[in-house]
Each structure stands twice: as structure tokens, then as C-alpha cells.
């Protein structure tokens, strides 16, 4: 499999929105993604893509009517629409000295492979490239797996935000990390190890945002 981390493009929105519906309630609208990509001056949207022609064929499984209706392929992953297969996506806002991870998700069919860490590392690197002083995010208090990953990169809990998630009123942890020298050195070690493990191409974290 050949993986590429790159800026989200307009052609990716269909696949991204399909994943979003499965991961979040309520999901972002198609128009929200279009705004983040084309109009917002603080947004840096990213996708993790499996490049066409590089992957092994997935095992053939029976496709349900629900999968066809939702634009799912036979292996449960989002179907292609002119780009490669989008495995996951994320969003980073850079406002003054703060980098805010606005969203991060992996297609449920591709979880458990370390791809969420690739997205997190990409956005961490982008925050450094943008000269942010710290990174913040929110995470469900029940999501122990995600919290463990964030702590690995130096994030710590700052405060508990009551009834943060509208779908079920679950609380969120506000987590953040200061991008000091020690944090940067730790990140570089983790990032290089991740590159060796997955061999992905990073066309996002150290590239300028495309315009137009």
C-alpha cells in the first residue's frame, strides 16, 4: 500500500463527508468542507490517501443495499470518485499563536492500523511549520484510546468541558501541548519512527497551503 498525506482538495469532499457521517453526529456539511478548503484563511485540511494502483485488492464481501446507498465499497470503505481512496482526514486551524485540531477521523474500515497517528503527526508538524506556540483539541472523556495517543505526543488535560457534544451531551477534555524545545525533539523522533513504519509520503506538514 502506498500512503500519501496531503492537503484536502474539493474532489475529496464526497469521500470525506461519507466518513464524517459514520464517525460524528452531527457531521459537517458538504458546504462546510468547501468553505474550509477554498475560503477560510486559517484552515489547513488534510487527508490520508491510498494511492490508486498501489494497494492490494480487498477481500470481496457481500455489499448491502445500505452500503450502496451510502456510497460504500464492498470492503466497507468509501468508494472512489476521481481521487485515491481516502482512509481518513483531519483539520487544523491556525489562529494567532494557537493551532487547533478541529477534527480527525479514520474510516471505520481502516481503523487499528496506526493511520490516526499519521494524521495527528501531520497536523502536529503543520503546527510547527506555521510557528504555533501550542496545539489544542477536544476529545470525548470516554475515548481512552485517542487520549492515550495524544498523551504520547505530549498533550495533557487542561479542563473538562461540560456537555460539549451535542448528540449526547457527553463531556470533553480540553487537551493541549506547548511546542517547546523538548516537545519538538520528541515529535521529530516519533515522526521519523512513524515514517519508517508506514513509509508514507508527506505532502502536507511541510508544504505551503495551495490556493485557488
Structural features:
Aminopeptidase; 8-stranded mixed β-sheet; 6 helices; 32% helix
Can you describe what's shown?
The chain is of the alpha+beta class and 212 residues long. The chain has a single domain (3-203), classed as Gcn5-related N-acetyltransferase (GNAT) (Aminopeptidase, 3-Layer(aba) Sandwich), CATH 3.40.630. Helix content is 32%, strand content 26%. The protein has 6 helices and 8 strands. Strands 6-7-5-4-3-2-1-8 form an 8-stranded mixed β-sheet, with helices on both faces. Strand 4 (98-106), helix 4 (115-129) and strand 5 (134-140) form a beta-alpha-beta unit. Helix 4 crosses helix 6 (181-198). The protein is globular. The protein starts with a strand and ends in a 9-residue tail after the last strand. The relative contact order is 0.16. The model is unreliable at 54-75 (pLDDT under 50).
Summarize the structure.
Helix content is about 30%, strand content about 25%. The chain contains six helices and eight strands, in the order βααβαββαβαββαβ.
Query: What is the rounded Rg?
Result: 17 Å
Question: Ranges with pLDDT <50 over ≥5 residues?
Answer: 54-75
Order of helices and strands: EHHEHEEHEHEEHE
Cα shape = globular
What about the largest sheet? Answer: 8 strands, mixed
Note the beta-strand portion.
25-35%
Q: Give the structural class.
A: alpha+beta
What is the CATH class? Alpha Beta
- The total strand number stands at 8
CATH topology: Aminopeptidase
Mean pLDDT: 88
Note the topology.
Layout: E1 3-7, H1 13-23, H2 30-38, E2 43-50, H3 65-69, E3 85-95, E4 98-106, H4 115-129, E5 134-140, H5 144-152, E6 156-161, E7 172-178, H6 181-198, E8 201-203
Parallel strand pairs: 1-8, 4-5
Antiparallel strand pairs: 1-2, 2-3, 3-4, 5-7, 6-7
Amino acid at each position: 500500500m502506498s500512503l500519501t498525506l496531503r492537503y484536502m482538495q474539493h474532489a475529496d469532499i464526497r469521500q470525506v463527508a461519507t466518513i464524517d457521517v459514520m464517525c460524528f453526529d452531527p457531521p459537517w456539511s458538504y458546504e462546510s468542507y468547501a468553505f474550509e478548503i477554498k475560503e477560510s484563511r486559517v484552515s489547513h485540511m488534510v487527508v490520508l490517501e491510498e494511492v490508486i494502483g498501489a494497494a492490494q485488492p480487498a477481500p470481496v464481501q457481500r455489499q448491502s443495499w445500505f452500503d450502496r446507498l451510502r456510497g460504500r465499497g464492498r470492503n466497507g470503505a468509501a468508494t472512489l470518485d476521481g481521487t485515491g481512496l481516502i482512509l481518513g482526514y483531519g483539520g487544523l486551524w491556525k489562529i494567532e499563536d494557537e493551532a487547533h485540531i478541529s477534527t480527525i477521523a479514520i474510516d471505520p474500515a481502516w481503523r487499528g492500523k496506526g493511520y490516526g497517528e499519521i494524521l495527528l503527526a501531520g497536523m502536529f508538524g503543520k503546527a510547527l511549520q506555521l510557528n504555533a506556540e501550542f496545539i489544542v483539541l477536544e476529545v470525548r472523556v470516554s475515548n481512552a484510546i485517542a487520549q492515550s495517543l495524544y498523551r504520547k505526543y505530549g498533550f495533557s488535560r487542561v479542563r473538562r468541558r461540560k456537555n460539549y457534544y451535542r448528540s449526547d451531551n457527553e463531556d470533553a477534555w480540553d487537551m493541549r501541548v506547548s511546542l517547546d524545545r523538548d516537545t519538538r525533539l520528541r515529535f521529530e523522533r516519533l515522526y521519523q519512527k512513524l515514517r519508517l513504519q508506514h513509509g508514507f509520503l508527506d505532502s502536507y506538514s511541510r508544504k505551503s497551503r495551495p490556493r485557488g
